[in-house]
Design goal:
73% helix; mainly alpha; 2 domains; elongated
Length: 176
């Protein structure tokens, strides 16, 4: 029992160290710290999330998918894990899975403007105009400041010339 307690304390210290490295923008050091935990197969969900985040920060998106998916499935209310997983899926060309991940976030955090905004981006890429506009409208209703990102957002190119998209953006600009 003492060994289990010691192991838990050691694990928590290593995870805290890795989290600190991530906050400092040092993902390689975070991975080095997490490697001291042993085989990633046995990682605690928090360590899996940190591992996935470090890989994501290193732009190793396909490598990050596995630990992030495991972390998200182990702790379904972990908004950060689902969001990061969606981010990675988009970057490996699986926009469909990115949408699924963000929809899981909305089950836990339905009023997160960033999630609605990114969901609108991903839906736009898939050509799902009705759902993209609905998500974008929701994001802008929660936080109108997201309007300033739309003009530069390349994910909205499929909708850029659409009159409904333009009307939504103009309406938000006029009220914001």
């Amino acid at each position: 029992m003492v060994v289990t307690s010691r192991n838990r304390v050691r694990r928590n210290k290593i995870q805290f160290e890795a989290e600190g490295y991530l906050e400092l923008g040092m993902p390689e050091h975070a991975l080095d710290a997490l490697a001291r935990l042993g085989d990633p197969v046995g990682f605690h969900p928090d360590a899996l999330y940190l591992w996935g985040e470090a890989l994501r920060e290193l732009e190793r998106y396909s490598d990050a998918v596995i630990p992030l998916a495991k972390a998200a499935e182990a702790v379904p209310e972990n908004v950060h894990a689902w969001f990061a997983l969606g981010w990675c899926y988009k970057r490996v060309g699986r926009v469909d899975l990115a949408i699924d991940a963000l929809q899981r976030v909305l089950c836990v955090a339905p009023n997160e403007a960033l999630v609605h905004y990114n969901l609108a981006c991903y839906l736009s890429l898939l050509g799902d105009k009705p759902r993209a506009l609905k998500s974008l409208a929701r994001a802008l209703a929660i936080d109108p400041d997201y309007r300033r990102l739309i003009d530069e957002e390349t994910d909205f190119e499929p909708l850029r010339d659409d009159p409904d998209f333009q009307a939504l953006c103009a309406e938000t600009e006029a009220t914001g």
